[in-house]
Amino acid sequence: MNNESKYNIGRIYFAIFGLIVLAFGAAELLLGVTGRSFEWGLLEMSGEFLLWQGIILFSAGAFYLSSFKNFSDIHQQAKVVMASAMIWIVAGMQIFGMILESIPGGEDGGWFNTAEGFLETYAGPYIPELFLLPFSLVVIYYIRLNRQK
Amino acid sequence: MRILLMGHPNVGKSVVFNRITGANVTESNYPGTTVDYEKGYVRIGHEEMEVIDVPGTFSLEPKDKAEEVAVKMLERNKDSVVVCIIDSTKIERGLYLALEIIERGSRVVVALNMWDIAEDKNINIDVEKLRQILGVPVVPTIAVSGEGIKELVSRISGATSVKIESVMKNVGGS
Amino acid sequence: MKLSVDERWDIIDKISKETVKFGEYRHTLKDALAEITVKPLTGIPIAIAVLYGFWSFFGAFAGFFTDGFLVKLFDGHWLPWLQDVFPGGLGNWFYSIMVDAGHMESGVLVAADNCFESFGVLTSGLFVAIGVVLPAIIAFYLFLIILEDSGYLPRLAVLIDTVFHKIGLHGFAVVPMILSLGCNVPAVTATRNLETKKQRFMMMTLLAIFIPCGAQLGIMLDVIPEYVGFVMLYLFLGFFVFGFILNELIPGKSPEMILDVPPYHMPTGRNVGRKLWARLRGFFTVAIPFVLLGVVFVNVLYLVGVIDWLANVFEPVLVGWFGVPKETTAPLVAAFMRKDLAVGQLMGIQEQLGMVAFNTYQLVTSVVLVSLYFPCIATVAMIIKEGMQDRGKGVITFLLGSLAVLMAVVFIWGGLLHLIWIILGVA
Ligand SMILES: Nc1nc2c(ncn2[C@@H]2O[C@H](COP(=O)(O)OP(=O)(O)OP(=O)(O)O)[C@@H](O)[C@H]2O)c(=O)[nH]1
Ligand SMILES: [Mg+2]
User: Fold this and answer.
1) What is the C-alpha to C-alpha distance for residues A130 and C47, in angstroms, rounded to an integer?
2) Which has more pLDDT, C27 or A56?
3) What contacts A105, CB < 8 A, 6 or more positions away?
4) Shortest CB distance from A74 goes to which of C29, C61, C68?
């Protein structure tokens, strides 16, 4: 496959992904502004930082979409990279927080958490950024591709 | 003998200083980290020399307190060797300060720092030619990895003061 | 011979023609990233993401150590153990300075059950310094250092500056402002990069008054987690309002800062580690002794009755104007030494007085007052030193000027918060 078609696939992939990200961002923003929360299966949108997460996710979505034109241009690529990095920040901090939360025993417990308590921390539900995280990793392929050029 | 490390802000003076003196001065990637001078020592041959990390300055007409310190340092130490550190990616701006220092009659050694970034950016500097024109030692360095620092130090004792007229003649002449 | 500026550039032009060849250069991803981080449209969301990342990291990291382990250690083991073995016991003067002063509950002197309340050198002093502030500042400094070393700091500064200009704010020095969040002391020194005396005076004064330091932030996060955002916003807002007013009032110029934006670097572990270590060493050798001394200082004043006397003198102002209980006098005195200590003490006082006599809004007001009302002693010393360098004999006017601004700010900005609570109907 030549580079041009690789970039074309990327353009379409990130356009679709961008729309999904944008939609989640908008949902978080709306819930954040109105002070409500949402839960469905393993997905949840709640918490004190919801508004901020919404702003970040919404902007990331907008970055993805705005890279549609001239997708292979390095400046457009930078936006895709940044958008993905923004998702990584939110998701990464969520994971980091979970890990740190799972270790100590809590107010009434012992020094360290019990095995069940430890696992329970990871049981979900999760914020949308965690679901979006794996799909945003595709950008790494394009970073490599840019470097080869 | 004293050695002054001078140059624009954020060109790597403090990194060079820490390398040659083993000191622990703050290095950061923003201009204006060092606002006061710092002293350290280096042994060259049998001589113990005092090295001074001078705050970054754009020119010898000071614009703020930190630059004032820099200019005062130079004035107070007329007989010291000035290691003029230049960011190789912004060589023209750096040469401006270097020329100013040369005009004042100080002995000068020029370090072309950030050589790695200049290479990445495909900037080619003819070091030998620059040395001929300026008439002072010119050494490419990469302060963060230590490349060229040894040579830089070895050139310090060979530093001479040159007349700006001879620089003018050298550029005009070829 | 001395050349004129033009002659110099002329020579440089010739030199560069002969020695430098600029080869073909295509923008790399790094350059493109560098660009989009300073353009407001893309830069602002990115900055929000970075700050969000920092805030969550800060909260999680500090919470892990403080709430996860250190509170348990200090309240559950250290305090009871000391109460058990320390000679003297409740009521003894030395015991009350070192371990626990106790407090009156329906006419009986009872022992404290946590390290905020006890207010002894070995209990509250160590708990505040090591249990709460240390984990917070490790996280905080780590972030600041990465900000400094990566090259994002000047970009963030340029971005903020651009936004300021759009809303008509000029001449703010953003880099010292951000550094100030770590500690006010080096930020005061960083004002040397400003061009005019006016700017240096304005920035030093405003930074010292309005910007809370990392240590204070850390303990606020532990004590009033839901309100830290609000307190910060209120303080920053004050910074700009008073900055704007001062800029108009003080004669002189505040020229624009033109900040050179360096390329991004990957921070090296070696340099990050070295700088973190230097900061922590500073914390252990300077800050912790000050915290402990602060406790001694306040406790001695308590014992000899000075605090109660001050509390009665200032009661009309504290209660009437700021709407906080007179018991906040002691933390305000402690704030001379260390702000983090003062905030910790406020928490202890709330626990003693109860939520009714000292509600959360009053707590928020007192935290704001602690931030505003006087810089910590280390910052004051640095301001005096810099002022002397800057003004020579004029340092007296300089300091009186700062003090005047300080008084005005405390009364106006502190009183305004009380007014806000009254309007909201919560005070
Ligand atoms: N890639 C590269 N980076 C360098 C080199 N030398 C220094 N740096 C980086 O450049 C930045 C600035 O270095 P400093 O030594 O703090 O600069 P300074 O000249 O002391 O700056 P001021 O104190 O502000 O005047 C740091 O982030 C260094 O890691 C070099 O040769 N190559
Ligand atoms: Mg420096």
Assistant:
1) 21
2) A56
3) A111, A112, A113, A114, A117
4) C29
Task: Assess whether the C-beta atom of B18 lies below 6 angstroms from ligand 1.
Answer: no
Looking at B126-135, B157-166, C269-278, C362-371, which range is the least confident one?
B157-166
- Residue in C206, C171, C151, C193 with CA at minimum distance from that of residue C38: C151
> Which amino acid would we find at residue B61?
E
**Residue A76 in tokens:** 């457009």
Does ligand 1 have an atom closer than 6 angstroms to the CB of B122? Answer: no
Name the one residue in this structure whose structure tokens are 């919470």: C63
Work out the average pLDDT over B87-108.
94
Distance CA B84, CA C228 (A): 47
C150 with C267: CB under 8 angstroms? yes
Q: Which amino acid is at B166?
A: S
The whole domain housing A43 covers 3-148
Q: Which structure tokens are listed for C278?
A: 């230097």
Tell me the mean pLDDT in the region A92-116: 90
Q: Give whole-number Cα distances, B67 to B15, B72, C39, C225, C383, in Å.
A: 19, 9, 29, 42, 19
Claim: this prediction has a pTM higher than 0.95: no
Count of domains observed in chain B:
1
- Residue B119 pLDDT > 80: yes
Instruction: Name the band, by pLDDT with cuts 50, 70 and 90, for residue B158.
Output: confident
What residues pair up with B52 in beta bridges, in sequence order?
B4, B39
Residues C37/C43, Cβ–Cβ less than 8 Å: yes
Q: Which chains touch C (3 or more CB pairs under 8 A)?
A: A, B
Q: Which two tokens stand for residue C108?
A: 């009986």
What is the longest distance spanned by two Cα atoms in chain B? Answer: 45
C171 sits in which H/E element: none
Single out the residue of C278, A142, A74 nearest to residue B23, CA to CA.
Answer: C278
Does the N-terminal peptide bond of residue A125 adopt cis geometry, omega within 30 degrees of 0?
A: yes
Query: What does B121-136 look like in DSSP terms, one character per residue?
Result: TTEEE-HHHHHHHH-S
What does B104-121 look like in DSSP terms, one character per residue? TT-EEEEEEE-HHHHHHT
β-bridge partners, A44: A39
* Chain A contact set for C136 (CB, 8 A): none
- Residues in chain C, pLDDT under 70: 1
Nearest to C193 among B32, B96, B172 (CB): B32
Per-residue pLDDT averaged across B43-70, rounded? Answer: 91
> Ramachandran region of residue C198, left (φ > 0), alpha (ψ -120 to 50) or beta?
alpha
Q: Tens digit of pLDDT for each residue in A15-26?
A: 999 999 999 999
What residues contact residue A25 under an 8 Å CB cut-off, 6+ apart?
A54, A55, A56, A57, A58, A59, A60, A61
How many domains does chain A divide into?
1
**Is chain C in touch with chain A: ≥3 Cβ pairs within 8 A?**
yes
Question: Rounded to an integer, what distance in angstroms lies between the CA atom of residue A20 and that of residue A35?
Answer: 22
**What is the extent of the structural domain holding B97?**
2-172
Share of chain A above pLDDT 90, in %: 74
Q: What is the CATH number of the domain that holds B135?
A: 3.40.50.300
Kindly give, in sequence order, each residue whose CB lies less than 8 Å from that of residue C379, ignoring residues fewer than 6 positions away: C184, C185, C188, C208
Pick from C151, C157, C152: nearest CA to C180: C157
Residue range A45-62: mean pLDDT, rounded: 94
In short, whether B15's Cβ falls inside 6 Å of ligand 1 is yes
**Residue B27 DSSP one-character state:** -
Statement: residue B174 has pLDDT above 70: no
Each residue of C3-21: b (16+ CB within 10 Å) or e? beeeebeebbebbbeebbe
